[in-house]
């Protein structure tokens, strides 16, 4: 409930309502329309408080950062799913002749050194 969360984080309930109006925090609601905060909501609130209190980020900046974090998490999930898909496909694929030869095909390539371009002489 909003009063318990406000007390737990030393906030005024209006601050939590502001975060909700700004779309930073969206708690679920009970049948009686009481705000219910999940563990995920509380973790998100802690990030909001760290950004605003400790790092001095305004609410617009906080919104951008939270959106970027959410997008990064989505991308990580997609990447893990893709890696798992590739792993499963590789396990299902029958071994081929090229697999045996490719195993020994590793060749040492010395690193290339970057050089600065020479200045044009005019």
Characterise the protein shown here:
It contains 5 helices and 2 strands. The chain is mostly helical. The mean pLDDT is 87. Helices cover 60% and strands 3% of the residues. A two-stranded antiparallel sheet has the order 1-2. The protein has one domain (2-92): Multidrug-efflux Transporter Regulator, Chain: A, Domain 2 (Orthogonal Bundle).
Query: How far is it from the N-terminal to the C-terminal residue, by CA?
Result: 75 Å
CATH architecture: Orthogonal Bundle
Helix content: 55-70%
Oligomer classification: single chain
| Helix and strand sequence | HHEEHHH
Average pLDDT, to the nearest integer?
Answer: 87
- How does the helix and strand content classify structurally? mainly alpha
How does the major sheet shape up? Answer: 2 strands, antiparallel
Indicate the low-confidence ranges by residue numbers.
Answer: none
**CATH third-tier fold name:** Multidrug-efflux Transporter Regulator, Chain: A, Domain 2
State the name of the first-level CATH class: Mainly Alpha
Number of DSSP-assigned strands: 2
- Count of separate DSSP helical elements: 5
Number of self-contained structural domains:
1
Biggest sheet strand order reads 1-2
Specify Rg, calculated over alpha carbons. Answer: 26 Å
- Overall 3D form: flat
- The percentage of residues in β strands lies in under 5%
Summarize the entry for a quick read.
By secondary structure, the chain is mainly α. The chain is 60% helix and 3% strand. The chain has a two-stranded antiparallel sheet.
């Amino acid at each position: 409930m909003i009063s318990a969360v406000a007390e737990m984080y030393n906030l005024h309930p209006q601050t939590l309502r502001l975060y909700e109006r700004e779309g930073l925090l969206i708690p679920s609601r009970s049948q009686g329309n009481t705000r219910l905060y999940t563990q995920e909501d509380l973790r998100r609130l802690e990030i909001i408080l760290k950004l605003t209190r400790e790092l001095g980020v305004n609410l617009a900046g906080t919104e951008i950062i939270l959106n970027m974090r959410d997008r990064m998490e989505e991308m990580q999930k997609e990447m893990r799913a893709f890696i798992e898909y590739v792993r499963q496909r590789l396990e299902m694929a029958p071994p081929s002749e090229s697999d045996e030869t490719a195993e020994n095909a590793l060749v040492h390539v010395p690193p290339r050194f970057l050089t600065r371009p020479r200045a044009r002489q005019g």
